[in-house]
Amino acid sequence: MQPSLTTERLILTPRTLDDLDDCIAMDRDQEVRRHITPEFRDNFVEADYRQTLRDRISNSHYPDGLGCWTIRKRAPGQAFVGIILLLPVGDIGPETEIGWRLRKDQWGLGFATEAAKALLHHAFMELALNKILCLITPENKRSLSVARKLGFTADGTRQAWGSQFDQFTLSNL
């Protein structure tokens, strides 16, 4: 089961179908999609994407404590900020990865770092994971900066989902 997580400014809740419209609105922005898998980055057809996302949300069956969370502000109105995930790499593992995607107007405000710190605490302290990976396209400077702030270290490259990624590792040893 995925817990809800709270930070000073944010609340992270397990993503549900109620979040579908916010996720689609975020992903309409080509700059937001620039660093995601090619199938949606390059061929964004909203109706297809809506169905795929609906299926992913409805049929996600990850090990306890893993999954995708919606990030919202704790302030009144709980404005949608983005999503963050803690999933088996390639949906099969055995390694676990963290990733995030935020609305463009929420970039540069520290929300990705703040949400990731909460999720990493959950991963290491509650799930007792020893290592988390972060896969980032080399040109995604903002996410590279977040990973470094979180203490991730470069650990080679990896081909996944039709793209080349820089792989970063954070250990709880």
Fold and architecture overview:
- There is one protein chain.
- The protein has a single domain (5-171), classed as 3-Layer(aba) Sandwich (Aminopeptidase).
- 32% of the residues lie in helices and 31% in strands.
- The protein has helices at residues 20-27, 30-33, 38-41, 46-58, 111-126, 141-150, and strands at residues 5-6, 10-14, 67-73, 80-88, 96-102, 131-136, 153-160, 163-171.
- Strands 1-2-3-4-5 form a five-stranded antiparallel sheet, sandwiched between helices.
- A hairpin with a 3-residue loop joins strand 1 and strand 2.
- It comes from Aestuariispira insulae.
CATH superfamily: Gcn5-related N-acetyltransferase (GNAT)
CATH class: Alpha Beta
Q: Enter the CATH topology name.
A: Aminopeptidase
Beta-strand percentage range: 25-35%
Strand order of the largest sheet: 1-2-3-4-5
How many helical stretches? 6
Tell me the radius of gyration. 15 Å
Secondary structure tally: strands: 8
**Low-confidence runs of at least 5 consecutive residues:** none
What's the mean pLDDT score? 89
Tell me which CATH architecture applies here: 3-Layer(aba) Sandwich
> How many structural units, i.e. domains?
1
Shape field: globular
Q: Helical proportion?
A: 25-40%
Instruction: Note the main sheet.
Output: 5 strands, antiparallel
How do the helices and strands follow one another from N- to C-terminus? EEHHHHEEEHEHEE
Task: Note the gap between the termini.
Answer: 25 Å
Structural class: alpha+beta
Protein name: RimJ/RimL family protein N-acetyltransferase
GO molecular function: acyltransferase activity, transferring groups other than amino-acyl groups
Keywords: Transferase
Domain N-acetyltransferase: 10-171
